[in-house]
Amino acid sequence: MPASPTLVWFRDDLRLADHPALRAAIDRGEPVIGVFLLDEVSPGIRPLGGAARWWLHHSLADLGARLAERGSALVLRRGAAAEEIPRFVAETGAGTVVWNRRYGGPERAIDADLKTRLRSDGVTVESYAASVLFEPWTVRTGAGTPFSVFTPFWNACLNLPAPRAPLPEPREIPGPATAPDTDALEEWGLLPTAPDWAEGLRERWRPGELAARRRLRDFLDDDLGTYDRARDEPAAGATSLLSPRLRWGELSPHTVWHDTLQAAGTGAHAASAHRFLSELGWREFAWHTLFHFPDLATRNWRASFDAFRWPHPDPEHLRAWERGETGIGLVDAGMRELWRTGYMHNRVRMVTASFLTKNLLVDWRIGEEWFWDTLVDADAANNPFNWQWVAGSGADAAPYFRIFNPARQAERFDPHGAYIAQWAPDAASRAPIVDLAATRREALDRYEDVKRAARAE
């Protein structure tokens, strides 16, 4: 009688190296079948944006090829997890299902219900820690509450046992004698066709695990030493560009953590490595916040911010922001880089978000939705977390009434105008759509409502 297979349910962990669920499946000694489920219909699951769908297509193609090279298979299915995963278990006769844990509210509910249902049917179900360095329930204040400020949060993390070492990539993966039927990836329609707007994404990115490892190695070899002093300069090319790799799990944070420490050692790069790893800590902070506040994309984390009076957005102003036609050089350069490549430098993300929410007085949720659709690295935690931080409604947004001046930001971080010249060379020829000083004063006036609400709490 053939052995019952073990199913590995891939989600946002599209890799073979440092994949605890995959390693556990291989160690069972039974045939291993990978499955990826495109679930955009379960309650609370947010459909992917266009740029994310583009990346997912190519990353899945890469993962399927790598699994096949090692003797296994990746099966693609589409639909609600509560229906499709039990159906696939019955179809394959699997005795075990394994996955790496997720931390969003709807995802946790889906996984918990599936565990209960499958176990009641006699199926072994196990889950593993893989996508964050420190699981959310392990980091608490002395009072037992979640942290709301980054620095004490990250200090608490660093006082915990160090993140585990990454697991090696398996050389062989025992597969089934006959691979189950699979959807054709091309039939999912993840790639844009009418029109095909992804030319800039194809020029900039090559999704997949091997490309992710090369990017990490190149960053550590070439840019880690200058990261501490040049990371805020969008024209410097000193950032890691690892955010989409981490978002899709082509790299694990454990791999980034340990490879960075190994590359830095105790030499001249140690300070830059510390700064870079704190950015990994900011990612952790976002996921911990989402775990404790599942409505992060739709509701103000800071309740007093409900008093902020968002006017009805001016459609012409909003369109100008989306297209990079505001007449503000750094803002326009960032928005055009985003549209062309699916990416924007982090410093410029803060400036463009501040301009939308505090100069144009557009609700942060509208900007978050635009980034969700256009960023290749948009995920359920970091995207809304960072928008709320800039808007002033989120965790650690102190002072929450901070307003970035895009002109001063350009003078400081793009002093030679190289970034603006690259992405918005016509910026100087256009008049700004709003007066920065006047709109700043209006935003500060509206913040008085938030201050009064905060004092009343």
From TrEMBL:
InterPro entries: Crypto/Photolyase_FAD-like_sf (IPR036134), Crypto/Photolyase_N_sf (IPR036155), Cryptochr/Photolyase_FAD-bd (IPR005101), Cryptochrome/DNA_photolyase_1 (IPR002081), DNA_photolyase_1_CS_C (IPR018394), DNA_photolyase_N (IPR006050), Rossmann-like_a/b/a_fold (IPR014729)
Domain Photolyase/cryptochrome alpha/beta: 4-133
Cofactor descriptive note: Binds 1 FAD per subunit.
Xref: SUPFAM superfamilies: Cryptochrome/photolyase FAD-binding domain (SSF48173), Cryptochrome/photolyase, N-terminal domain (SSF52425)
Pfam families cross-referenced by the UniProt entry: DNA_photolyase (PF00875), FAD_binding_7 (PF03441)
Site (Electron transfer via tryptophanyl radical): W310, W364, W387
Gene3D superfamilies the record matches: 1.25.40.80, DNA Cyclobutane Dipyrimidine Photolyase, subunit A, domain 3, HUPs
Similarity field: Belongs to the DNA photolyase family.
Protein name stated in the entry: Deoxyribodipyrimidine photolyase
Species assigned in the record: Microbacterium aurum
